[in-house]
Amino acid sequence: MILLKRVLLSALLVPALAASGENERRFDLQWTIALDGVPAGAKEAVVWIALPQELPEQIVERIDVRTTWPWDFVADPDFGNRVARVSVAPCPSHIDIALEANVTRKSIDGSIVDPLDDRRRALLLREESLVSLSRRVRAIADSIGHSNRDRYDYVLDVMDYDKSTPGWGRGDTERACDIGKGNCTDFHSLFMSLSRARGVPALFEMGYPTRPEGESGRAGGYHCWAWFWSGDRRTAVDISEADRHPEKVDFFFGRLDADRITFSRGRDVRLPGMKGKPLNYLPSGAYAEVDGAPFDGVTQTLSYTVK
User: Fold this and answer.
1) Which of 83, 194, 231, 305 is the most exposed place for a label (fewest CB within 10 A)?
2) Do 225 and 91 sit in the same domain of this protein?
3) Residue 68 to residue 97: CA distance in whole angstroms
């Protein structure tokens, strides 16, 4: 018998947007996580599945997890990412886990009130495995203008959205400085490094880009963006989209459309119970370990309708 656990989250508990929030999308999501090629004789697989996150700009009304295996909800201790953790023992060679959710996403026009305590501020200023605060990064940060818009414009000027050179997508600030090419992960890692080098807290956010007409059976296709703090307010940037759509350069400094869903936040993410090293970032699909070792044979397929 399939184990079904439903979670209803009250929108009344979500703080109001500082932005206008006039534009919004309601998504009915269905997605599947699959593990293929689990080695014969494996004793246990553990799968941590990224979920739509409850945020002031994103209301999660329902999450269903359908699987024959035991599971629970857990959250990482640093960024608070809520994930579904599924334990599979003994292990078949193929594992499927199905999920559904209802999510309302609001557009953002301006900053959002989100005070930082000392712990969060330190977290969002730290050097991370690929979000460098090297001497070179600090020198660049000192050489350009000191405003957040200056850093946004600098990344836009020196980076090209280009996935032709191997190594893109890891969010490696030093690589971004070396070759000036990459995807959304690389753009926003450089922005975060330059911000943190100037003492400005910055946060990485990972999710899916969406289409107003919906999609069926899509595999992969993540998108990411970043936030910076000024006092008690956080402001969004989507620099890679600004690079791809030059007519929206001003829009994507301080604004986000509602055609996206946040599934995780942060870098060097530690998940409860994991044996491997912290994750460079929590993928918008899932992370798995088989007998305590990271397992690469994870795929996901996503479908959604827009109301």
Assistant:
1) 231
2) no
3) 8
Range of the domain at 189: 108-263
Task: Count how many Cα atoms sit within 13 Å of the Cα of residue 208 in the half-sphere of its side chain.
Answer: 27
> Within 13 Å, how many C-alpha atoms sit on residue 137's CB side?
23
User: Does residue 251 sit in the same domain as residue 282?
Assistant: no
Residues 78 and 223 in one domain: no
The amino acid at 114: D
Q: State phi, psi for 184 to the nearest 5 degrees.
A: -60, -35
User: In terms of domains, do 291 and 221 share one?
Assistant: no
For residue 84, report the phi and psi dihedrals to the nearest 5 degrees.
-95, 125
- Let me know whether 117 and 50 are in one domain: no
Domain count for the chain, please give it: 2
- pTM, 2 dp: 0.91
Instruction: Provide the residue-wise pLDDT of the chain in tens; the chain has 307 residues.
Output: 333 433 433 332 333 333 333 489 999 999 999 999 999 999 999 999 999 999 999 999 999 999 999 999 999 999 999 999 999 999 999 999 999 999 999 999 999 999 999 999 999 999 999 999 999 999 999 999 999 999 999 999 999 999 999 999 999 999 999 999 999 999 999 999 999 999 999 999 999 999 999 999 998 889 999 999 999 999 999 999 999 999 999 999 999 999 999 999 999 999 999 999 999 999 999 999 999 999 999 999 999 999 8
Residue pair 253/237 in contact (Cβ under 8 Å)? The answer is: yes
- Taking each helix axis as running N to C, give the angle between helix 184-197 and helix 148-158, from 0 to 180 degrees, rounded to the nearest 10: 140
Q: In 3-state terms, what secondary structure has residue 244?
A: helix
Query: What DSSP line would sit under 112-158, residue for residue?
Result: EE----HHHHHHTTS--SSS---HHHHHHHHHS-SSHHHHHHHHHHH
Give CA–CA dist 242/257, Å, rounded: 12
The CATH number of whichever domain residue 288 belongs to comes to 2.60.40.2250
